[in-house]
Amino acid sequence: MLKPAVLKHRRTTLERVEKFISEIYFTDCNLRGRWQTCWFKVDLSIPREWTGKEVHLLWESEGEGMIWRDGQPVQGLTREGEKTSYILTDNLKETDPHSLTLYVELACNGLFGAGKGSMIAPPDPDKKFSLQKAELVVFNRDVHELLVDFEILLDMAKLLGEENQRSFQALYTANRMVNLCDVANPSTFAAVHELACSVFGQKNGESQHVIHAMGHCHIDSAWLWPYDETIRKCARSWVTVIRLMEKNPEFTFVCSQAQQFEWVKNWYPGLYSTIQKFAKEGRFIPVGGTWVEMDGNLPSGESMVRQFLQGQRFFQQEFGKLCLEFWLPDTFGYSAQLPQVMNGCGIHRFLTQKLSWNLVNTFPHNTFVWEGIDGSQVLAHFPPADSYGLAGCVEEMLKTVKNNRDRGRVNHSAALFGFGDGGGGPTQKILDRLRRMKDTDGLPRVQMSTPDRLFTALEKEKAQLCTWVGELFLELHNGTYTTHGQIKKGNRECERLLHDVEVLSSFALAQKSSFQYPSAKLQHLWRLLLLNQFHDVLPGSCIQLVAEDAMRYYSGMNLPWPLREASRGPAPHILVVNTLPWKRTEVIPKAGPGGSKTLGANSFLNLPLQVDGSVIMKNGLVRVCLDTLGRVTSLCLMQPERESVPEGCCANQFVIFDDVPLYWDAWDVMDYHLETRKTVAHLLKPLEIIQPGGLRGSVTFSLQISEKSVLTQEVILDAACPHVRFQTQVRYACNLLWKLFPLLNTPIPVYVL
Fold first, then answer.
1. Helices of type H across 543-635
2. Which of 328, 423, 691, 736 is placed for a possible disulfide with 698 were both Cys, Cβ 3.0 to 4.6 Å?
3. Cβ-Cβ contacts under 8 Å for 712 (sequence gap 6 or more)
């Protein structure tokens, strides 16, 4: 057998290798690709003279990392999240092993992805990640404690104000500590620390505001990084939480999104078992009750219910309990139907903070009763510090009290601490700060708590709270209702498809008892759909790589297999099923002799082109009049006759606006854009009848938007169809084609069994 010549085509082979290591070309799939990990084998030899010392591995790199020891992840690493060391031993003993091997998994991305120059930016193909420091060091715990002491006292002196006695006490104590501390003589450190404790030990009065501090690590299931990277982010963040819990018995941590728990269960089973152990102790606390932290407006009502169904089912099976609170701190607004959905799923508590981002109107409450469209009510709480990623500083705790807009009604509020969005979570320094503010006179009382303790305290004052009725509207990110339209179209089509498959599977089972209802398959597909409803995916505020992942998931959901199963073998009759709750008048073709289709005489339509170039489309149900620019001058329901376009007005009128927002250009549309409205009226290609009638009539035309852009639209009316469809394409000069999908005008299938 002949073997092919390895270098038969020298040029292509050379360029193939060059591209594989290129910093410019194909960086998404070559050796320099983002979202890849590399491994370091780290052999350590600890000096014998360090006996009795606390020994750390110090690791500083631009990419996120994770340390593995004995085949298990043991510590997350991220410079941005202030996690740059791993404790090898608290107190090195003579009998301890002084030589060991660790492995560090290092990612080609930071805490906020791999963008250029800005935290919120798409991946930069030229970005490089380097390792700056890898050292074996002795950690001086006494100096660390003194640094935190000085930080808290100095913040009290600065922030409590000159009119406050405690400000002066903190300042003078810090000054005495400086006098007493001899940096060259560590034996003085203990006495200096005792001076600080004398201030922290002076207790608060009973009336002081109580802050319920909870560890938190908001991890976007996808955003500036793809889904696969999120799996690693969860492991890095949560294994660090476990290490902190082992050293801080009072530490509690709340964690939402059942999908992320499932990821860790599948990919890091050892870590997951440890998480379950701490969950039983009530310290690693699942919250939220949903599959992901979904968008609060775009999913259908059924999808909202399925978020809770799948989330609560997972938490019940894996942790033996249901979540009591809905946890959605970062989505872009909240539908008025949510209280009803929550109540129906056994949840009567709600936490978010996103409305603190409002541009114009400050939301008037932090703790209130939220009432939905049907009168359902939930107790809502917005942490007054306006963040879910606090650093545990004095300033943040004082802000929590000052910002509380319901003072006098309630005396409790939440403080969620830990690096978030890209993961990271709490640090030891944050815990050390909060410990000093546990019950210190002059500061709010900060106690490590749980969601249940917080809401139980708030519920005692529920009778005094105000009620907000209706939607919780976010005055920001309204551009996300059009960004990445293909994701939104895919979501709606798959919602409808899963609904139809469930209905038809039930009919199939009723017809044939041998039919296997596809429960497992349906759950898998629902969970994929629910994942894509995450609040940075469905709104389109994610990078292109995430959008591609989302579309790939949608593409795998287009086969209504129960139809095939149910139709096997001879059928005595045809069952036509309307899977939607309203009456429909579509014509269902039935195969006649020789496979021909037959329709009633009233089902046909025709499209006469008028003398002036306008078109009238009608099919016995609706009549549509298009003028020479393709605008709808009349849209009339014929039986009974009802016009939907007011006289003198028109629909389907394209307009353009300047889109230069204050912050994120793909997310925001500012109010001042309304001042820049321009109609698109340059007809490039006049109305042309593409399909003249019969079962379908369609008209197409093109408008010139600018020197670089052309809009082409096809208007379609089918026989016996009660709606008209518009398919619109915008083509740019660079030949990129963008499709605008009208979500409400996509055809709804009628299945035949």
1. 544-555, 561-566
2. 691
3. 685, 700, 701, 702, 703, 728, 729, 730, 731
Mean residue pLDDT of the chain comes to: 88
Answer whether 307's CB lies under 8 Å from 299's CB. yes
Strand partners, 390: 417
Q: Is 185 exposed, middle or buried (0-12, 13-18, 19+ CB in 10 A)?
A: exposed
Structure tokens at 552: 């790939």
Tell me what percent of the chain is helix, strand and coil, each rounded to the nearest 5.
Answer: 35, 25, 40
Which of 107, 61, 74 lies closest to 232 in space, CA to CA?
107
- Give the mean model confidence (pLDDT) for residues 203-230: 96
Token pair belonging to 711:
């809009």
How far apart are alpha carbons 384 and 400 in whole angstroms? 5
Three-state secondary structure call for residue 31: coil
CA distance 330 to 537: 13
Residue 752: in which H helix or E strand, if any?
strand 751-752
Note the pLDDT of residue 26.
56
**What topology does CATH give the domain 14-139?**
Jelly Rolls (2.60.120)
For tokens 């490590």, name the residue: 448
Concatenating the DSSP letter of every residue in 271-309 gives HHHHHHHHHHTTSEEE-S-SSS-B-SSSS-HHHHHHHHH
Q: In the CATH scheme, what architecture does the domain 210-469 have?
A: Alpha-Beta Barrel (3.20)
Pick from 607, 605, 587: nearest CA to 690? 607
- Other C-beta atoms closer than 10 Å to the C-beta of 136 total 15
Q: How far apart are CA 506 and CA 331, in angstroms?
A: 35
273 in Cβ contact with 254 (< 8 Å): no
Calpha distance 688→701 (Å, rounded): 6
Show which residues are catalytic.
330
d(CA 484, CA 421): 21
What is the CB neighbour count within 10 angstroms for residue 620? 14
Cα angle 208, 414, 315; round to 5? 140
The residue behind tokens 């082992």 is 246
- 212 pairs with which residues across the strands? 414, 447
Q: Which of 215, 335, 352, 225 is nearest to 284 (CA)?
A: 215
CA distance 86 to 236: 13
Q: Phi first, then psi: what are they for 481, rounded to 5°? A: -80, -5
Other residues' Cβ atoms within 10 Å of the Cβ of residue 165: 11
Q: Are 468 and 372 in contact (CB under 8 A)?
A: no
Give residue-wise pLDDT tens across range 388-424.
999 999 999 999 999 999 999 999 999 999 999 999 9
Angle at 259 between CA 258 and CA 264, to 5 degrees: 95
Write down the architecture of domain 485-578 according to CATH.
Answer: Up-down Bundle (1.20)
Residue whose structure tokens are 């339509």: 605
3-state secondary structure of 541: coil
User: Which residues make Cβ contacts (< 8 Å) with residue 572, sequence separation at least 6?
Assistant: none
Q: Please, which pLDDT band fits residue 602 given cuts at 50, 70 and 90?
A: very low
In this prediction, residue 735 carries a pLDDT of 43
Which contacts (CB < 8 Å, 24+ apart) does range 734-741 have? 739/485, 739/486, 740/485, 741/485, 741/486, 741/488, 741/489
CA contacts within 13 A on the Cβ side of 273: 4
Structure tokens at 12: 């292509």
- Note every long-range contact of 688-693, with CB atoms under 8 Å and residues 24 or more positions apart, other chains counting: 689/607, 689/609, 689/615, 690/714, 691/607, 692/606, 692/607, 693/604, 693/605, 693/606, 693/607
Extract the tokens encoding 589: 């073709």
Write phi, then psi, for 456 (nearest 5 degrees). Answer: -65, -40
Q: Name the residue among 213, 165, 532 with its Cα closest to residue 388.
A: 213
Cα–Cα distance for residue pair 234/231, rounded to 1 Å: 5
